[in-house]
Amino acid sequence: xxxxxxxxxxxxxxxxxxxxxxxxxxxxxxxxxxxxxxxxxxxxxxxxxxxxxxxxxxxxxxxxxxxxxxxxxxxxxxxxxxxxxxxxxxxxxxxxxxxxxxxxxxxxxxxxxxxxxxxxxxxxxxxxxxxxxxxxxxxxxxxxxxxxxxxxxxxxxxxxxxxxxxxxxxxxxxxxxxxxxxxxxxxxxxxxxxxxxxxxxxxxxxxxxxxxxxxxxxxxxxxxxxxxxxxxxxxxxxxxxxxxxxxxxxxxxxxxxxxxxxxxxxxxxxxxxxxxxxxxxxxxxxxxxxxxxxxxxxxxxxxxxxxxxxxxx
Length: 313
Fold this sequence. Notes:
Number of strands: 14
Strand content: 25-35%
Radius of gyration: 23 Å
């Protein structure tokens, strides 16, 4: 079997994997680390996701303007910004759910706008998604939630699926909860089950949409550590959309800060903490006073209450 999978490369005096002799699941995992070039199988390029001058609008309402990002393989990258700044829209563009109005989104050497429906589906099979509140199937047990996409997208026997499910649940500390239903889980447990389901097929890219929302401090710390540990263990690339600044800065490698659909700052966590731009500083340090005003724009308060002409009794 080993001889069938490995092909001897006489020019280099060594063996290299033969993708044609691998099953479809193993081949997809191999291709996430290798790519074909003129001289055979080479190490994959460092950049996994590249966003080039992307603009996006809903009708006439602009959401993103002139966005440029480069995300290397194997890193944990945070997308930060106040609500409505376009963070989740960026995730949708990367996942091929929507196409940019202009510009290009490249994922693993493919331009998402150039892919047909089947191409988009094939790309998404190598992505994992942790939704804001888990989005577990309420009528399926913890075990069946994690096993779902293994049964849907692979031809693995049930005995192997069982072993893989238990491995994923063990990785998030919930192997003993396999028989429970979602209604029996706490918020933090449900989020961990959703994470086990998201990594079921060892995705090339993991995307997290507000993974820390609504969690108690202990659960939040557990999820934050899992994001970092699973990324490093599985060799994936992780994108984290979050408002939880301090927790995220402790686990990510790089940060992009969005405001009003534009890229206002980017850098390492240390660089973001030291950034002197008033907008970035206010966000990172959670200050009430700054460019983002507490009061929504309005007219004169006294005039609104008709107090201008009143006299004391």
